[in-house]
Write a structure and sequence with these properties.
three-stranded antiparallel beta sheet, single chain, elongated, mainly beta, 216 residues
């Protein structure tokens, strides 16, 4: 009798360990490695008599809230395994390099319609940021959202390889970063837009930073 109960419980545990799709709930960290070139600093423009500089990194877009330092960022798109969702993200980084000199980084400008014909008025720096001795931005990464394409879930994350201390004009950058995405089980319902065809798979491969995950 004890043997029968034990075997019944073992079978039940085996069944419960599978999702409603009949596959095990496997959790694994997703780790992606990125390397960054030395930033290029150039004179940009004067605002109210003060010189401001642009800072760029080859291959990366720049971004900043209006009036805040405009810095390079690395957009990352991470394909999340089927049935999983992002639990948290972590970043480990390589060497941090300080750039010699002191620079006031150009504030991001208020967008102007192409149809505007009036005089140009540059956006002034936000003094709450530019007078601060705290590192800007205040985080190395940000999980913006998790979106869906053809039924595949894709986490949209940004990495900030450059740090700026506005009040001192100091600039540092990281030569490399490792992004670790931890996932959790979120349910096994099939997304109604998932078609499991080669065309969709290839489209997803082309836009994510871990294309090998499409076939897992």
């Amino acid at each position: 009798m004890k043997r029968t109960v034990f075997m019944t419980l073992a079978i039940l545990a085996f069944v419960v360990s599978f999702s409603t799709m009949g596959v095990p709930r496997v959790h694994a960290d997703i780790t992606l490695h990125f390397e960054f070139p030395e930033p290029v600093v150039k004179k940009a423009m004067e605002i109210e008599g003060a010189q401001y500089y642009s800072l760029t990194m080859k291959g990366l877009p720049t971004f900043g809230g209006v009036g805040r330092p405009e810095l390079p960022l690395k957009p990352v798109r991470v394909l999340i395994p089927y049935g999983e969702d992002v639990e948290n993200i972590e970043v480990s980084y390589g060497d941090k390099v300080k750039i010699e000199g002191a620079y006031a980084i150009m504030p991001a400008q208020q967008p102007v319609p192409t149809s505007y014909k009036g005089p140009y008025q540059p956006t002034l720096p936000d003094q709450r940021v530019y007078s601060s001795i705290k590192a800007f931005p205040d985080t190395l990464s940000r999980h913006l959202s998790t979106q869906s394409k053809h039924g595949y879930r894709i986490a949209i994350i940004t990495l900030n390889p450059v740090e700026h201390i506005p009040a001192k004009g100091e600039i540092s950058y990281y030569k490399s970063m490792d992004l670790i995405v931890r996932t959790k089980w979120a349910g096994g319902d099939i997304n109604k837009f998932f078609r499991a065809n080669d065309k969709d798979r290839q489209e997803v491969r082309n836009i994510v930073d871990n294309p090998e995950a499409v076939d897992t």
